[in-house]
């Protein structure tokens, strides 16, 4: 549940949503996607109210949700085909995106033959295939091991530099948020309200070395303190 969220995201911004479990991060993302209608207020994109899903908003979930019966290339080409592109154009777009995510050699493979990180690369390529103005990502790297997650963060940062779509990215990982974002929005415990709006003034492109920079460390610490203040402390245990 969210309550009283009032915010504006500028075109081309990379925004991360942080907050305690159950605060409504995914609910807010689903409202932007058009999967959930707000009970009050509205979501607008370029001055038009969002009333349902649309190709101008691409979605990447924690689980890749690829079509298991389609090849990698056909998965990525599916969106353009559904929005009216010809087969040649759709496949050309898919090949370009698979090259950008480093999967050219796997375009004829099926999803079950790929690792978790590779499946998420396909998922990101598929979400970008319709050239969305907004890319919505719901903890897309949450199920990956630490090393693969780091690689995927760098991959996503590079893709964002290439496409400059507006990105709204839900995560529980504070360091991930600071590495990726232009702005970090911290939500309070349920009902979720906007607790803080923190700018991340780190230059781009960003490399892993930035995580030791004083500015990075200070922002990370500030975020952790805010989130810790929203975490219940009255836990007790008994036998």
Task: Write structural notes for this entry.
With 239 residues, the protein is of the alpha/beta class. It folds into two domains: 1-56 and 134-232, Rossmann fold (3-Layer(aba) Sandwich); 67-131, no CATH class. The chain has helices at 25-33, 72-82, 87-100, 116-128, 146-163, 174-180, 214-228; strands spanning 14-18, 44-45, 48-49, 57-60, 134-138, 166-170, 183-187, 194-199. Strand 2 (44-45) and strand 3 (48-49) form a beta hairpin. The radius of gyration is 18 Å and the shape is globular. Mean pLDDT is 89; it is low at 235-239.
Stretches with pLDDT under 50, minimum 5 residues: 235-239
Q: Proportion of β residues?
A: 5-15%
The residue fraction in helices comes out at: 25-40%
At the first level of CATH, the class of the largest domain is Alpha Beta
Q: Indicate how many domains the architecture comprises.
A: 2
Q: What fold name goes in the CATH topology slot of the largest domain?
A: Rossmann fold
Q: What is the gyration radius calculated from CA atoms?
A: 18 Å
How confident is the prediction overall: mean pLDDT?
A: 89
Q: Report, as a whole number of angstroms, the end-to-end distance.
A: 33 Å
Tell me the number of strands. 8
CATH architecture of the largest domain: 3-Layer(aba) Sandwich
Continuous helix count: 7
| Corresponding CATH superfamily of the largest domain | P-loop containing nucleotide triphosphate hydrolases
Largest sheet: 6 strands, mixed
In quaternary terms, these chains amount to: single chain
Globular, elongated, flat, extended or rod-shaped: what is the shape?
A: globular
């Amino acid at each position: 549940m969210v309550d009283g969220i009032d915010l504006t995201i500028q075109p081309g911004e990379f925004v991360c949503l942080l907050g305690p479990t159950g605060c409504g991060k995914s609910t807010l993302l689903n409202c932007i996607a058009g999967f959930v209608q707000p009970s009050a207020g509205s979501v607008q994109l370029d001055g038009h109210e969002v009333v349902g899903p649309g190709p101008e908003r691409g979605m990447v979930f924690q689980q890749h949700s690829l079509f298991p019966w389609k090849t990698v290339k056909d998965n990525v080409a599916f969106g353009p085909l559904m929005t009216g592109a010809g087969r040649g154009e759709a496949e050309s777009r898919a090949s370009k995106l698979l090259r950008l995510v480093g999967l050219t050699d796997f375009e004829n493979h099926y999803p079950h033959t790929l690792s978790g990180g590779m499946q998420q690369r396909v998922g990101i390529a598929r979400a970008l295939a319709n050239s969305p103005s907004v890319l919505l990502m719901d903890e897309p790297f949450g199920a990956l091991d630490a090393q693969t997650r780091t690689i995927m963060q760098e991959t996503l940062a590079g893709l964002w530099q290439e496409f400059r779509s507006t990105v709204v990215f839900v995560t529980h990982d504070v360091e991930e948020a600071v590495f990726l974002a232009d702005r970090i929005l911290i939500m309070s415990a349920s009902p979720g309200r906007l607790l803080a709006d923190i700018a991340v003034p780190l230059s781009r492109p960003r490399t892993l070395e930035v995580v030791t920079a004083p500015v990075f460390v200070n922002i990370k610490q500030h975020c952790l303190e805010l989130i810790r203040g929203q975490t219940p402390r009255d836990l007790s245990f008994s036998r």
